[in-house]
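Request: Show me your protein:
***
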Amino acid sequence: MDARHSESLSNVHGTVNTEHRTGWRKIFAFLGPAYLVSVGYMDPGNWATDIAGGSAFGYRLIWVLLASNLIALLLQSLSARLGIVRGLDLAQASKNAYPRFVNFCLYILAQIAIIACDLAEIIGMAIGLNLLFDLPMIWGVLLTITDTVLLLFLMNKGMRKLEAFIVSMISVIGLAFLTEMFIVKPDVVEIAKGFIPNNLFKNDEVSHKMLYIAIGIIGATVMPHNLYLHSSLVQTRKINRTKEGIKASLKFNMFDTVIALNLAFLVNAAILILAAGAFFKNGYFEVAEIQDAYKLLENIFGKIAPVLFAVALIASGQSSTVTGTLAGQIIMEGHINLRIAPWMRRLLTRLLAILPAVFTILYFGENALSDLLILSQVVLSLQLGFAIIPLIHFTSDKTKMQGFAIGPLAKIAAWISAVLIVGLNVKLVIDQVNDWISGYPDARIEIYAIVVPLIVGVGVLLLYVFMRPLLFKLKERPARVPHGEATAIGDISPIVYNNIAITIDFSANDRDSIRHAIMQGGKDAAYTLIHVVETAAARYHETEVMDRETQSDVKNLDLYIDDLQRMGYNARGYIGYGIPAKAIAKIVNDEGIDFMVMGSHGHRVLKDLIFGTTVNTVRHMVNVPVLVVKPQAK
């Protein structure tokens, strides 16, 4: 394992114990990470591409789904291998191997991919709510911002609870489509023919459209953020770091990956087969919209099939949005060394994804959302090369992988997959630019001046990502960890505090605050008791106001001072006025305080969000050590 790096998803790192277990209990302990990954393979983006492919071309693109699943199995196994052997997620490994500017570019591209993925979840959830409850799409999109609360709840409950939630959502999706397969009764012979590959590269409009949808299917299936996610999630298992322990962990995680991703393939195949059997077979060749699929299912098969369809859609979007948040945290911490609160990270990603959805609804109407959904999956596919190429390099490095580097066959298969995906994307980009040039002749200057240089820049970055590990194998830099590096502590001499401030609010917490302050300074220090008057007049004037509350507070503060002085302590009191944090900080800075003790109200998350936390604000406004005393549970 690399010696210098911060733990990926540190709050759940190594929290699931797998040691001292045998048989099925051992296997069960490792099951979970791939199921979280697999929800990204059956999210609303997959639904859009599968429905579009099934309705337009029948069963002819099933082989693309199968090929995508095989590629996903290979790449996800490499991602798990990287996390288990090196104890690094893909973003951390990239941070070690590439310069800071390149990592910043990789972060931006990965963030765009996560926003594109989150956009798919937003649209899918909004469509599901619209279909079931007739909720307007704009309200459904805005309502999806509330799932931040769900994520906070699940993360606080631990990794196993989160995995159980995801598995329950997958079960809902699977059962819904299993039931719909019995309703639709697809043609088994035609399904078998769909596994035979057909030519996507003919120079005609049909092949061009088929290629576009095929790339969307690949982007929706082999998601770049899932590669980051899997390399981190496998580290939630506490394993024996010996060679035998790592080998066993690789084996059990392979079981997990194969089972979970094959279940995802069956769900995707079921969606495409449903679209082919219900729409293509009945002459509906342009069902690219999920809403149309719902309505047609109702017309053809009655009310049960569309209700199951909508329930599965909501379950899919809700489960996928949780894993997208985790991937965003991994990418931000890994690539650019930035660690922020998960709820803030989630809210930021969701807001960035909501904006294009709201803009599309307001300016192009609700019917344009399905096109936006498919476009989001193509964007995901375009990002794949920047995740796959470094992953293959890292897992092929015999020195870093300590005897667990991938073999020649796996390496060849991985590079073929990378070349195939990058090649398809290059063709798609060239075709799209040519379409823009021919379709918008008045915008040719803008296309040549802005779009083409941007594409060339991304191409150069991809070439650099590919070439650097080959040319500079011995120049991998140590990781820059968020918390810095430990240094020798050396000789520690005691610190003497001469002037200690204590914030007072005349609650039961004051006694504990004063006791902890006295423990720091004894009878040699001076104690400054601070209370802030927060009446409307005090907040407005921010100066002395002798209203009834102020007079009562002054009297109470004097009682504290008298008691301390009787016990032999040097104590004095100060009254502040207005905003508590601002008033406290002013007194501390003006009176030469060198240490302060503050009582915490012990609020839960919701109260802190509503009322704010004076402690945190003061902490950033003063330059002295702050001791926070939390009230003891009774």
Observations:
- The chain has a mean pLDDT of 78.
